[in-house]
């Protein structure tokens, strides 16, 4: 797993996004989670919304330059033909881009959210690119997304595993999902929701002694549970939101 998650830009309060932008982001992560071969759909928003690229090409990125930027991110995914990948993205997700006078521009549906879309898609790509493309992919996605501070996406990765699981694995996965939901509430600074789901999560996870055994490898969540307990305890007294952010960030480990 990449070590870059240790300095994630998402370990801070996040804005509430308009529903169209939420749908835009959801379609792309769902595609990447369902089939690792579709991770390349995350590349194009990362390039097109990047502030420096937009500054250099306000009326559209020339296709040759778009492909040159994308090639550096596509190669680790095993994609060697940027033109073919671009055509597939435009066919599957036409809200990715539209023509400008000098090349391709972010689709008008993006509004003013280009930089945020670029950052979020790029960070998702960083989280998913190095993962094993076998039966461990789904759980690996969940762990890596959690460690990159992408808690909403982590929920999306773990939910299909939870739906298909039987007890006692189902209850353990539910505990991890609820733990994740609590940190998403922290990003939204929703104290009531955060306390409720963390309390439920910790109750479900307590019998596991910090380690969930799964068919895809054990997940060590002991430290994440510990810092969550500490946050809940802090919330019982007088505190500021900054106090919760200053505490250690939770991390999971997927053991081989």
**CATH homologous group name of the largest domain:** TTHA0068-like
SS strand fraction: under 5%
The gross shape turns out to be globular
What order do the strands of the largest sheet run in, or round the barrel if closed?
3-4-5
Please give the alpha-carbon distance between the first and last residues: 12 Å
Which runs of at least 5 residues are low in confidence (pLDDT < 50)?
none
Q: Work out the number of β strands.
A: 5
Mean pLDDT: 95
Under CATH, the topology of the largest domain is which? Hyaluronidase domain-like
CATH class of the largest domain: Mainly Alpha
- How many discrete domains? 2
Count the DSSP helices.
12
| Order of secondary-structure elements | HHHHHEEHHHHHEEHHE
**What class, by secondary structure content?**
mainly alpha
Largest sheet: 3 strands, antiparallel
Measured as a percent range, the helix fraction is 55-70%
* Assigned CATH architecture of the largest domain: Orthogonal Bundle
Radius of gyration: 19 Å
